[in-house]
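Saturday, quiet lab. Running sequence design on the structure tokens for the scaffold JK sent over.
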């Protein structure tokens, strides 16, 4: 935790009210997201109990499994849920246009991408587990599943994998979104409770934050926001209701069966509806935060991934993702996630002064006053030609932990401005940082004066993630036997090639 975040949490604790920690919202919110609140039985991993799903607050669809331990009923529930989710996904697979590229040919992309919102990270885990349970199933043979279930499983796996990547907005937990924009006086673990988090940000009218937090911990007033029910509810209410339904079915009593089904539906509706209403309240809060300028670029990346995977599913050789990654595929995934995280952190700091301040407090960026410049400095290039390389000297009170040679970008300079740390000298509590400008400065004959700030101006710098070529990993034949698994193919099926994101920061040469 950074110094700024720690201070804001202390402020929230002292005032008993959540404190905003960003100037902008750094995730896209679709005009019509698909909200899904899944629920499973406590202690029954992979046994769905119910789900409420919909794209409008006042028009939800409640799906229920009458016997979660029954395999047939589980997959019938999955097929019903799949029809709702796939309807949303397919609505984004209609309009397609060319996206001009700076390298190569134009790329045809869908103009929209799906967005599914769940209450917390447990909801993402539930959908990931459901995807694994479905994508290898067959619609024929000895144990068939309803049509569409395998395809639904592949899409769930794709969405769950995308949720691991920083900055994407196709599958998101609302608690994570809220925690990105508000600091509370509770722990990060408690921030995963949607009711508790909302109590800090916007308590119910006429209720204090303290009372709202206490109410959020009461499973009767605020049932768990999924994916697992409260064990006491399972014991006192759900268990007897399921047994009553099973008994009515066994005796063929249609009247008792209808009554038991109605009772079960009312029970589960009472458990899940409070979370449904709170989800839309949280979405309304998030819409009130202005969207950051670079969100549109990340949405384009989402559309690229969505288009790539959609085309893969439409191809004749479409197949489910492997059960687990091989050594090379796992390394590629890790590399992809690390690069996406670096890009997201840099983009949010470039857009948002509060995020930038947070990075400055831990030495991952710095800001200071320009005390000297050499705008006409030139050096000899490899081809023995004079190249313009201005110098900027800043005095900063921020902790400076960036090494010499670190490439930099600045939110206060024109696009294309790039620089490199030449040296850092400490003078008491201050640091004197000398920076060489090596991007956007023009030529000796036509220098770009705006690339060199005036003396006395305050500017900030942070590390430039830059464009990086795709990492090179060994072929499967060259992988050591200690890292080889015959059952885990080293493929990246369903993952967009890394070089598709090359335009985020541009080429460094």
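Result came back. Writing it out in full:
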């Amino acid at each position: 935790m950074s110094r700024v975040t720690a201070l804001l949490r202390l402020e929230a604790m002292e005032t008993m009210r959540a404190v905003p920690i960003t100037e902008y919202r750094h995730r896209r919110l679709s005009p019509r997201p698909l909200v899904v609140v899944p629920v499973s039985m406590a202690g029954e991993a992979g046994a769905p109990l119910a789900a409420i799903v919909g794209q409008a607050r006042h028009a939800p669809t409640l799906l229920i499994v009458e016997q979660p331990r029954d395999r047939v009923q589980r997959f019938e529930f999955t097929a019903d849920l799949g029809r709702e989710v796939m309807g949303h996904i397919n609505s984004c697979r209609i309009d397609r246009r060319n996206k001009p590229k700076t390298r190569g040919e134009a790329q045809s992309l869908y103009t929209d991408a799906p967005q599914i919102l769940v209450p917390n990270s447990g909801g993402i885990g539930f959908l990931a587990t459901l995807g694994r349970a479905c994508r290898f199933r067959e619609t024929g043979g000895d144990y068939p599943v309803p049509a569409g279930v395998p395809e639904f499983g592949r899409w769930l796996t794709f969405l769950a994998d995308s949720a691991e990547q920083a900055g994407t907005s196709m599958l998101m937990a609302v608690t994570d979104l809220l925690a990105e924009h508000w600091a509370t006086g509770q722990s990060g673990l408690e921030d995963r409770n949607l009711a508790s988090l909302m109590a800090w940000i916007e308590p119910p009218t006429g209720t204090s934050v303290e009372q709202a937090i206490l109410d959020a911990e009461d499973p009767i007033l605020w049932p768990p926001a999924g994916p697992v029910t409260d064990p006491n509810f399972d014991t006192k209410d759900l268990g007897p209701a399921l047994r009553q339904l099973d008994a009515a079915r066994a005796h063929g009593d249609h009247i008792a069966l209808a009554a038991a089904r109605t009772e079960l539906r009312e029970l589960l509706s009472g458990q899940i509806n409070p979370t449904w209403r709170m989800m839309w309240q949280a979405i309304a809060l998030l819409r009130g935060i202005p969207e950051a300028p670079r969100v549109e670029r990340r949405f384009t990346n989402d559309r690229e991934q969505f288009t790539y995977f959609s085309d893969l599913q439409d191809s004749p050789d479409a197949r489910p993702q492997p059960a687990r990654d091989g050594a090379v595929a796992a390394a590629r995934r890790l590399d992809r996630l690390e690069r996406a995280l670096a890009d997201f952190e840099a983009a949010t700091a470039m857009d948002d002064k509060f995020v930038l301040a947070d990075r400055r407090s831990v030495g991952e960026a710095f800001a200071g006053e320009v005390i000297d410049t050499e705008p006409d400095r030139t050096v000899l290039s490899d081809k023995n030609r004079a190249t313009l390389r201005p110098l900027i000297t800043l005095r900063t009170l921020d902790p400076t932990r960036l090494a010499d040679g670190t490439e930099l970008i600045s939110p206060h300079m024109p696009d294309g401005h790039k620089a490199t740390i030449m040296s850092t000298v400490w003078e008491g509590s201050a640091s004197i940082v000398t920076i060489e400008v090596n991007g956007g400065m023009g030529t000796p004959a036509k220098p770009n004066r705006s690339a060199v700030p005036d003396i006395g101006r305050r500017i900030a710098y942070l590390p430039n993630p830059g464009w990086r070529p795709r990492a090179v990993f060994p072929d499967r034949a060259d992988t050591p036997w200690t890292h080889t698994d015959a059952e885990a193919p080293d493929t990246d099926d369903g993952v967009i090639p890394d070089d598709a994101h090359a335009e985020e920061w541009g080429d460094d040469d």
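Notes for JK: The CA atoms of residues 348 and 355 lie 7 Å apart. Residues 499-503 have pLDDT under 50 and may be disordered. Ask whether to fix the surface positions before the next round.
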